[in-house]
């Protein structure tokens, strides 16, 4: 059974949704409900979420272009945690910024075969990153997470990496073209020392001089298949080379990295050279070019 009360109706508000929600609690046949282009607010969406919390038939819910803000969107996502049937939740053109990704979260919860999450260009900032971090904290299926081209700064990066640091399956994390500074990048590096599976950390396009060195450090620590690494012309100085040196120093003997490329375009001084020399004493790198 499909019920379409969107677009051409356009006038359903909180009272109407409360009445509809009461009827939905006992419904056993509805599989699609279209409430797009109405006047549904945070209050009304709570009525709806409570009614659908244990629903066992609804597959598609369309709430496009209503007046739902982040509080209502978060309530909806939390209420639907135990729902086993809803797969498609449409929330575009609502007032809350969470509307850009909560529908994908619902789909991800239900489909355990999904291992790649792409949330690039979703206007995700620190609050949104914190919400997503709670979703991903105990996840054991995500192998690739793309959060590039968003508004994540140091706090958002911390939420994200704290949630994913113990992941046993994540291999690719893309945080490129956000607003993460040196402090946030340094936090990522320290926290991810606990992680043994992440081999690709994308950080380019952030306002930080550390992004190349920390990406390299993560790969050196965890990728046992690389045989060479090119760090030429990356504006790497003493502070940046310290990240690479620490990774080389602590790298397991099983790594295949034997060639590391660099040149005079980088700005490594005496201090950086000492970091590097100390690291190479205990590493398998044979060629420094």
UniProtKB/TrEMBL annotation:
Protein name: Uncharacterized protein
Pfam families: LRR_6
